[in-house]
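User: Here's a structure from my thesis project, written as structure tokens. My advisor, Dr. K., wants to see whether a designed sequence matches the one we expressed. Can you design one independently, without my sequence as a hint?
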């Protein structure tokens, strides 16, 4: 009986799968909670309907706890966004999503992946560094927010296979 109760309340690893336009209503609030300017549900849905956009999501039960989204054209892809719910951060979920996503992009023929990240977002920079991304340029004063100094966008690149 105790084993049964333990299994009911045990934290299970989130299940990862490709995202679709049906996930827009869940992705939009997570994006808004994670970034200065969040995407609306309509913006997310439009992206997910784009034939060049590839996205993955992580569900814990029926709750979205993370996603990653890229746009791929020919053999190049750009990661548009990665977000993990606050309570799930620091547990490797972003790494797992990124690994799955990069494998899928490679399978679709991507040879190079780019992304931009705020120079002050140390957890994201650590994630990308560990995944083999390297800085190729900077965009000074790219991220602005009232009451703070503008931050540079670091442009990162990783070659696949």
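Assistant: Designed independently from the structure alone:
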């Amino acid at each position: 009986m105790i084993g049964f109760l333990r299994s009911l309340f045990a934290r299970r690893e989130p299940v990862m799968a490709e995202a679709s336009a049906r996930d827009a209503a869940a992705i939009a609030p997570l994006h808004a909670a994670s970034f200065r300017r969040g995407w609306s549900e309509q913006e997310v849905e439009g992206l997910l309907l784009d034939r060049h956009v590839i996205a993955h999501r992580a569900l814990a039960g029926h709750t979205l706890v993370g996603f990653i989204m890229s746009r791929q054209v020919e053999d190049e892809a750009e990661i548009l966004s990665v977000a993990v719910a606050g309570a799930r951060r620091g547990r490797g979920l972003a790494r797992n999503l990124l690994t799955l996503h990069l494998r899928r992009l490679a399978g679709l023929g991507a040879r190079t992946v780019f992304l931009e990240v705020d120079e002050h977002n140390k957890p994201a920079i650590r994630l990308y560094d560990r995944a083999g991304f390297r800085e190729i340029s900077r965009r000074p004063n790219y991220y602005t927010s009232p009451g703070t100094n503008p931050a540079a966008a670091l442009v990162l690149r990783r070659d696949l296979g």
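When you compare it with your expressed construct, this may help: The radius of gyration is 17 Å.
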